[in-house]
Task: structure prediction
Amino acid sequence: MKITKLLAALFLASVFIYTGCKKEDKKPKDYSASTDNANANNAFAGIWKEISTVTDSSNALRAPSSNCATASITPFDLVTWPKTVVIDFGTTNCIGSDYNRRRGKITAVFSGPYLDSNTVITITLTDYYHNDYHVQGTQVITNRGHVSNGHLVYNVVVNNATITSPDGARTSTWNTNQNREFFSGESTNAYIFDDVYLITGHAHGFAENGDGYSILINTALRVNIGCPWIVSGGLTLTLADYPTYPITVDYGSGACDANATAVLNGTTYNISMY
Result:
């Protein structure tokens, strides 16, 4: 009898210890990391769109999307490489045809022609603001040549980019290694607004609220040069502190708008890319 009572006591004690020490199932407080990632992805895709708008890295120079911006190519000839392209939006907000507000400078150095394999394009920013968000970071684009379907593919790397809110109080960081497939528009060099890119790859960073996260693109993100936002595709975002609660993001089915959705723990939220 004493042994039985002792075993029962030990059993109850073990149950108490287990239930008392069992960790509560932590759930994310919000989906803000998905918004921060969408904004970072959109901002850096938009930077490349601005470069594409003014030049194909030849001696052709088209007008910037913003009437208040200026653009230059140095040296301005057909044979000398590398070439440096600078788009200067000025020190006050400059509204483009895509209705986004920009100020500061974008500088792109082309090691060779844009359509040539192994050409490297290094893009840097000087006091650059996108809709009053301060965007900092270097984007390196490498032409990897044609894949089996005949489309050109560009590898894009961004390391330790930062995006600071207009009030200067909140900052998110962003890193990515992605491939951009030149899906359509390559044959119409003189007209860039029919160019379409499909983005695949991964990214990671820290949201404005401090949450660390990583993302994997499940369905290629479609970027139309003629639209200021990502128009379709999807990804899964995993928060470092809540790995069992992934956030799935859907950019829609092709409409040119700033809308996307995020699903967290069975609930759908609407998000907007600035």
